[in-house]
Amino acid sequence: MFDNKQIDISTLPQVAQVDFKNLHPKYKTVIGIRLLIASIFILLLSSSPYIFQHITNSLPISDIWLVSICGVGVLLVILMCIISLKGVQMKGYALREHDIIYKTGIISRSQTVIPFNRVQHVVVYEGALLRVFGLCTVEFFTAGGALGDLKISGISKEEGERLKAYVIQKITKSVKPALIVEEKEYKESEIERINETE
């Protein structure tokens, strides 16, 4: 008989009590290098009108506007660096018995929970810069498609491989009982069909 009892919300586990593991400290260096490259590009782009004006003196723009454009570029770089580096500190993940939790965000914070029985496969890969520092990215592909996938960057290669092996082991254990139940249901339906024909 189908039973659907009400659950007391106060007895549910609190996600806030989970002990999240921070990303590898070297990941800040990776982010710093990426920020340096992006900052150089932004500063060159924002200062190019000022430089071009002083070389050719052909732009119909006052120096105040040219300096303002440069100032906007500098401000953008500062904000980008603060948000990116602070964002690394706010990221973290935790493994539980049946799922993995990932938190991220500074102003708008989010926590993503991926049950192991929804994970289809796990991939560990390294970008060129991550490889230099011995880091990797672990991506969990779920049955929910791209919107349900989870990507964790900035953990050590060794830890990423262990995480992958652990989740795959959990996937394997959860798949076998499901196959047994499906086979049992199939056999029962076949028996019922045979009895009906007789």
From TrEMBL:
This is YdbS-like PH domain-containing protein. Keywords: Membrane, Transmembrane, Transmembrane helix. The keyword Transport does not apply. Signal peptide: none annotated. PANTHER family: TRANSMEMBRANE PROTEIN-RELATED (PTHR34473:SF3), UPF0699 TRANSMEMBRANE PROTEIN YDBS (PTHR34473). Pfam families: bPH_2. The chain crosses the membrane at residues 31-52, 64-85. Residues 91-166 form the YdbS-like PH domain. It comes from the Bacteria. It comes from Myroides marinus.
